Amino acid sequence: MTEKTKPTITSETTEMNKQSETTEIDEHLYSDVFITVTSKELIIKNYYFPFAASLTIPLTEIISVDNADDLNIGLLSMKEWGMALSNIWFALDFTRSFRPKEKIGVVKVKNQWMRKGFSVKDVRGIDTLKRTWSDVKNNQYNQ
Fold it and tell me: Residue ranges under compositional bias (Polar residues) (predicted)?
């Protein structure tokens, strides 16, 4: 009878696996229950009605990033989920009307008339998105 041998895992194999995992995963620069910002994309969680699926937008496709205060958006133009009296579709947040406008973000995407609205737990989320999007946009123009 032949003895079955188990494959051996060397430190080299483990290191190669770690490297391939890190190259495939884009680091989260900011993440909360509402959005995730990476160096390449914005993920708006609980976006689509009625299944609350996420929407992923490449940063290269974004035209503008603002907060509700910058755009002077009032309560009638915002909704907990969906579209109110504006051209903004808001991701799910049942507490949006109680948030400061600085914690409500709006992005405009190339070739789309409807803007995307979302909340953040911390103002740093929108600041991180603005900074990262600006860096991507500047790199795009410099190439």
Answer: 7-22
**Which residue's entry shows tokens 């940063």?**
59
Q: Where are the domains of the chain?
A: 32-142
Exposed/middle/buried for 101, CB within 10 Å: 0-12, 13-18, 19+? middle
Instruction: Please check whether residue 129 is in contact with residue 105, taking contact to mean a CB–CB distance below 8 angstroms.
Output: yes
Is the domain defined by 32-142 classed in CATH 1.10.1200? no
> Measured in whole angstroms, how far is the alpha carbon of residue 121 from the centre of its chain?
13
Q: Strands, E, within 33-100: which ranges? A: 35-38, 41-44, 55-58, 62-67, 82-83, 88-90
Low-confidence ranges of the chain (pLDDT < 70): 1-25, 143
